[in-house]
Amino acid sequence: MKISHQKTYTLDQIMTTSELAFELEYSQSYILRVAKACLTENVDYRRAGKRNYLFTIDAYEKLKEILKIDLEI
Questions:
Q1: What is the pLDDT of residue 73?
Q2: What is the average pLDDT across 11-17?
Q3: Distance of alpha carbon 19 from alpha carbon 4, whole angstroms
Q4: Are 18 and 31 in contact (CB under 8 A)?
Q5: Position 50 in a domain
Q6: Is 4 contained in some domain?
Q7: Is the dihedral of CA 45, 48, 53, 58 positive or negative?
Q8: What whole-number distance in Å separates Cα of residue 56 and Cα of residue 39?
Q9: Is the pTM value of this prediction over 0.85?
Q10: Do 35 and 44 form a contact (C-beta atoms < 8 A)?
Q11: Average per-residue pLDDT in the chain?
């Protein structure tokens, strides 16, 4: 028996790269660079096609904090 410990999300809690960039008011390329450097792939985000990714609401919250700290420096 396989037990999954992965968190489950609704469709409302998943964003594309474009939606995430719009919400955070940064370019898509910048969001992807920060995400790849600071988030965990296949946990916070995953590839959904060529140059397109899907992000969880948790990833959004983490990036919001990371970008806020970056602005304060």
A1: 47
A2: 95
A3: 28
A4: no
A5: yes
A6: no
A7: negative
A8: 11
A9: no
A10: yes
A11: 89
